[in-house]
Amino acid sequence: MTDNAPIPFLDLITPHEELRSELMDVVGKALSTAGFIGGPAVAGFEKEFAQFCDVSHCVGVGSGTDALRFVFLAAGIGPGDAVITVPHTFIATTEAISQVGARPLFVDIDEATYNMDPAQLRKYLEEQCDFNRTTRKVVDRKTNCRVAAVVPVHLYGQMADMDAIQDIADEYNLLVVEDACQAHGAEYFSRNENRWRKAGSIGKAAAFSFYPGKNLGACGEAGAVTTNDAELAEKIRMIRDHGQATKYYHDLEGYNGRLDAIQAGILSVKLSRLASWNQQRQQSARIYETLLTPLKELVGLPTEPSWSKAVYHLYVVRVQAREHLQKVLAQANIGTGIHYPIPLHLQKAYKGLGYAAGSFPVTEKIAREIVSLPMFPGLREAQQHRIAEAVAEALSAELPQVVPAGTTA
Question: Helix axis angle, 261-292 relative to 40-53, nearest 10°?
């Protein structure tokens, strides 16, 4: 490999340089009108993003964490309640649960998709809960908490198996809230409805993050809730703005969780490019698959089921010699990442939940093996060839130590 120019894990500079004029126009308009909070820019983006997600309502908020937290508050979830999610996600998912006073509960993930395993969800509800079919109330036996909701996380840009999860949730009277913070534009083919559905359009509500590195990223913090429930949307609008229905009239105690007008304007500019950017990510994923398939005995590649149209927020592979692979790629000026090395149930922050090593074996196994390769719009095929060559070089050197699953050395 003669070209040793750095290949970043994520390129946030190039797209902003390309959009500099339009983005500066947004800032200039805010400066000339003093329209910094709310107003037409926020309302316009909310309308555009609702249409993009095929929902009736979008409420812009300060972050993806705010989005989840405000949904729980608006839905009346709080102390004495529990919410089911997965241990393989960013901590914001569970922070939103615990910060409304509820208790996070975990079920394991599917090893192929890294998303919530519906079979494990059903197993938990059947084996660790009591369900009163008259009151339709689910209670976790260990904690005596009412199980109120389930939060599937559409991780790495691929949606969870929503038909199966929604069917179980309907059976047990659970609210479904999508954590779509990594899935802007991802799609799911609903066998129940015989049609494709957008991320953020299936559950009672969904949370999106617009953190700068996301497929649709702001130039700072930002988030949104999508829903088809007008009453829920209106309550979230109040919660994000100190509980105000109108200025200085507070129907409830809320938060300062508004979406800035400048960020909303920036997101509107970028939203018009999101479909193209997602297509570039999908094309890069196909190129990776072609280049890395010859190494499939040593590299676990992403699985995209027939019911999924993933948007590849991250391109995550699995290897046994992860540290060695990262070292070799770093020496070749290639950036990598790990999402996420320590499952949430093993984090110090959640020691009090009572989980231990071995509680979720699939999550714990993949947490030791996953590594994220460079993925961003504008990633060139020549760069991907360099990355694949470096991966092959690293793993070939480790062949005596790297043994395919199910075999012996």
Answer: 30
At 198 the three-state DSSP class reads: strand
Q: What is the DSSP letter of 103?
A: E
User: Could you tell me if 114 and 36 lie in one domain?
Assistant: yes
The first and second tokens of residue 370, run together, are: 């996953």
Residues 185 and 292 in one domain: no
Take residue 170 and report the two structure tokens written for it. 């309907």
Residue 2 located in a structural domain? no
Give the pairing type, strands 103-106 and 81-85.
Answer: parallel
Whether 406 maps to a domain, the answer reads: no
For residue 408, what pLDDT band results from cuts at 50, 70 and 90? very low
Rounded (10°) CA dihedral 334, 340, 342, 344: 170
Residue 139 and residue 81 in one domain: yes
User: Does pLDDT of 164 surpass 50?
Assistant: yes
Rounded Cα distance between 310 and 269, Å, is 23
Residue 306 is predicted with a pLDDT of 97
DSSP string, 314-353: SEEEE-S-HHHHHHHHHHTTB--B-S-SS-GGGSGGGGGG
CATH assignment of the domain containing 216: 3.40.640.10
Given a cut of 60, whether residue 25 has pLDDT beyond it is yes
What is the per-residue pLDDT across 286-345, written as a single tens digit (0 to 9) for each? 999 999 999 999 999 999 999 999 999 999 999 999 999 999 999 999 999 999 999 999
* Residue 381: pLDDT over 50: yes
Give domain status of residue 363, yes or no: yes
H or E segment and range at residue 154 = none
Q: By three-state DSSP, how is residue 130 classified?
A: strand
> In 3D, which of 287, 267, 261 has the Cα closest to residue 214?
267
Tell me: the pLDDT tens digits for 59-117?
A: 999 999 999 999 999 999 999 999 999 999 999 999 999 999 999 999 999 999 999 99
For 217, the token pair is 């990223």
Same domain, 287 and 260: no
Same domain, 251 and 351: no
> Does the pLDDT of residue 3 top 80, yes or no?
no
Number of domains in the chain: 2
Its domain, for residue 358, covers 274-397
Q: Are residues 278 and 359 in the same domain?
A: yes
CA distance 66 to 387: 37
Q: Are residues 283 and 310 in the same domain?
A: yes
Residues 28 and 125 in one domain: yes
pLDDT of residue 245: 86
